[in-house]
Amino acid sequence: MLELVEDKDQENIIGLSREEIGDRFLSLGLQKFRSGQVWHWLYHKGATSFEEMTTLSKKVRVQLGKIFSIKRPTVSEKQTSADGTIKWLLQFEDGAKAETVFIPEEDRGTLCISSQVGCTLNCSFCHTGTQKLVRNLSSSELVGQILIAFDELSAWPSAQIGRPLTNIVLMGMGEPLYNLDNVIKALKIIMDNEGISISKRRITLSTSGIIPEFNRCGLETDVNLAISLHAVTDDVRDILVPINKRYPIKELLNACREYPGVSNSRRITFEYVMLKGVNDSTSDARALIKLMEGIPAKINLIPFNPWPGSPYECSEKKQIEEFAKIVLKAGYPSPVRTPRGDDILAACGQLKSASVRERNKKSRFNEGLQEVRLS
User: Fold this and answer.
1) Contact in structure between 13 and 70 (CB atoms under 8 Å)
2) What is the DSSP letter of 71?
3) CB atoms < 10 A from the CB of 93, how many?
4) Domain segments of the chain: what residues?
5) Can 152 be counted among the known catalytic residues?
6) Which range is least confidently modeled, 267-281, 285-299, 301-315?
């Protein structure tokens, strides 16, 4: 029998695993199948209150509303690019903020989510790297980014034909493998086929190469892996991706060769930002090919997306094409990523929340100019 006792400290039910919800319901005297009903309402229908859950008795709905909350992040700011890309600045309960980006394409809709507020890696070409790490995002905050996108895109119920959001990439702010516990928990909720139901084949986790977490990531999530490589020598990568000093290229690529599930049908994607005069020569392309030996690989070539005060320039279009031609001829798919949302600083490497600085009412463009003047 459910006790009608109010808990003053409501627990956010978003981000709890199926098992956690089931255990809590059992402790309240509820049959375990009720947790499945609530799960369906939360992640298939997108319910934002227990009152909406009409398959539960009114008494149960009232009591659950006293014990649990259903909380999403708050949309602090929304920007829409000329190409249709949408960027949301989301605020969490403690006031911390992170950015989430939706990229619409003809055959898919991809949501780029953040795993941390800020970042600890300090990659020199990345705008996010100029913001210090504030904290990890919880499983509820990770899942909350997806719920907000579904809300904003009118994507409920989650299983609708032609739904606008089909793919997830953990390529936003932060290093996912430094927050692996929460990332794994969130991914299992996202992939659950009775809820949001996004297949592991449509989820990609991007890492700068935290080697000790590779095996666990592969075994417990089985999602696609992307590596932020960006250089073919340790000397250059030490500058671009400083974590390379701890996990150098040779060790990183050996770990990729041993990544669980990697095969010709499950390739690892290597992300390679094209920086003029830094890593874009034809000799770099040939060195990259040699590094890839024994790895089922795809090379994503990313034209550098500038941000206010950035110290790099994008490679010339002709040079990028020549680089791609060499890699492709060696048998590695080498698509050149089309910049999306760069006019609203939503493109790859441009994300930076306003969590740790005072915000003013000027446009992002004017704010960026001010940062340059002060540097």
Assistant:
1) yes
2) -
3) 12
4) 11-69, 74-374
5) no
6) 301-315
Give 143-200 pLDDT, tens digit per residue. 999 999 999 999 999 988 899 999 999 999 999 999 999 999 999 999 999 999 999 9
Secondary structure of residue 10 in the 3-state scheme = coil
Q: d(Cα 1, Cα 107) in Å, to the nearest integer?
A: 49
> At residue 72, does pLDDT exceed 80?
yes
Contact 125, 279 (CB under 8 A): no
Rounded Cα–Cα distance for residues 5 and 67 (Å): 8
Task: Give 142's contacts (C-beta < 8 A, 6+ positions apart).
Answer: 15, 113, 115, 182, 183, 186
Residue 354: both structure tokens together: 């306003």
Which residue in 3, 99, 152, 256 is the catalytic one? 99
- Burial grade of 134 (CB within 10 A; 0-12, 13-18, 19 or more): buried
Strand partners, 101: 87, 112
Our answer to whether residue 348 is catalytic in this structure is yes
Instruction: Tell me, yes or no, if the pTM score tops 0.85.
Output: yes
Catalytic-labelled residue, pool 152, 348, 358, 371:
348
Q: Domain 74-374 adopts which CATH fold?
A: TIM Barrel (3.20.20)
pLDDT of residue 310: 86
CATH number of 11-69: 1.10.150.530
Asked if residues 102 and 153 have their Cβ atoms less than 8 Å apart, the reply is yes
Which residues sit opposite 31 in a β-bridge? none
Confidence check: pLDDT of 284 > 50: yes
Read off the pLDDT band of 319 (50, 70, 90). very high
